[in-house]
Design goal:
Radius of gyration: 24 Å
Shape: globular
Number of helices: 10
Number of strands: 11
Order of helices and strands: HHEEEHEEEHHHHHHEEEEEH
Largest sheet: 6 strands, mixed
Distance between the termini: 34 Å
Strand content: 15-25%
Helix content: 40-55%
Strand order of the largest sheet: 1-2-3-4-5-6
Length: 350
């Protein structure tokens, strides 16, 4: 299979999800509009009941006739069970339902989805018993490039149980590590703070000392991540020395205006987000005392977003129909809103 084409199809579906999800109100509509197209991209014939079985019977103990939404079959045996919920539902409260189904069949994988988020489970901890935590979580509206090869392993042409199982453990603990680090960046725990303080401070680690270090640790982690991201972004853009000088030099519309590092980070990340949508030399910025403006074609009527930096916070306002605004702790958070930024630019172009 062509992995690049496969990734493009997934991203295209992600844009579709983002576009229509507010008009979907039921579980059935979610299945028809979002879930079935996902598995169609994975190469399964969603209209062949011997391959993609709707309402698959999965008896649970003394309860007979329990049904799971879909089962993907291999050699007449279920290998993937799929439980679907409405797109406006959170998935955490439904994990136990799929957990019950998993133990009554020969299936090796369970997928829990609401049409936008997909959680992939297997039995790493105890054979034939579905793990409580998924080994892969994918948001189709914001799928990461690193996740595309992992989803591709579930494509009909690639499907190999042993191959998926062999990497599932690493994926699971990498995901748990990312969640842990994200939590610590937002609110460092007592244990995490104590460990780091022990590495950098020789004094007595009293509770008062640890409390003083928490904001320092939070700020240090954020700055470290931002610096590493900026290094990667610069490499991705293949920025020449001349181009760097041009980017750093502020295009000021008023005197005595200082363009901050956070504003320039924002501009750089927007370039990365839009590099496949437009030629990045069409992007400009103008700074003023109130906000930092990012423009298309250096046209003030074609502003893409306005950025406000205040009290260690960043606020972004998009030039969409609702002038949607978001508060962020770091310019890197812009990546979460990539699809919305692309949509604004596509609207300005057309």
């Amino acid at each position: 299979m062509d992995i690049e084409k496969f990734g493009e199809e997934l991203k295209k579906l992600g844009k579709r999800v983002e576009k229509i999800k507010n008009n979907i109100n039921t579980e059935e509509a979610t299945k028809t509009s979002l879930v079935m197209p996902f598995f169609q991209i994975l190469g399964y014939d969603i209209f062949d009941p011997t391959e993609f079985v709707p309402e698959f019977t999965a008896d649970v103990g003394i309860k007979k006739g329990e049904k799971v939404d879909y089962a993907i079959m291999l050699n007449s045996q279920p290998v993937i069970l799929i439980e679907s919920k409405a797109i406006n539902e959170q998935l955490t409260k439904h994990d136990s339902q799929l957990f019950r189904y998993f133990g009554t069949t020969t299936s090796k994988f369970g997928i829990l989805t609401n049409g936008e988020e997909y959680k992939f489970f297997t039995d790493l901890e105890e054979q034939n018993k579905m793990d409580i935590t998924p080994f892969l979580i994918v948001n189709i509206s914001n799928i990461k490039d690193s996740q595309i090869p992992e989803v591709a392993k579930f494509h009909k042409d690639n499907f190999d149980i042993e191959n998926i199982i062999s990497t599932a453990s690493e994926l699971k603990y990498l995901n748990n590590l990312k969640i842990f680090l994200n939590d610590q960046m937002n609110t460092p725990s007592e244990e995490f703070t104590k460990y780091l303080v022990g590495e950098i401070y020789d004094g007595v680690k009293t509770k008062n000392t640890l409390d003083k270090f928490k904001p320092i640790i939070k700020k240090g982690l954020t700055q470290f991540i931002n610096e590493r991201v900026n290094e990667k972004l610069s490499a991705a853009l293949n920025t020449s020395a001349a181009a760097k000088e041009e980017i750093i030099a502020p295009v000021q519309s008023e005197p005595e205006i200082i363009t901050t590092a956070e504003e320039m980070e924002t501009f750089t990340i927007v370039k990365i987000i839009l590099k496949d949508t437009i030629q990045i030399d069409r992007l400009y910025y103008r700074d003023n005392k109130s906000y930092f403006n990012i423009l298309l074609d250096d046209n003030i009527r074609k502003w893409i977003m306005r950025v406000f930096v205040y009290d260690n916070k960043i606020k972004m306002v998009l030039n969409d129909s609702n002038k949607t605004s978001y508060e962020m702790s770091s310019p890197v958070d812009l990546i979460v809103h990539s699809n919305e930024i692309v949509n604004v630019v596509e609207t300005l172009i057309h």
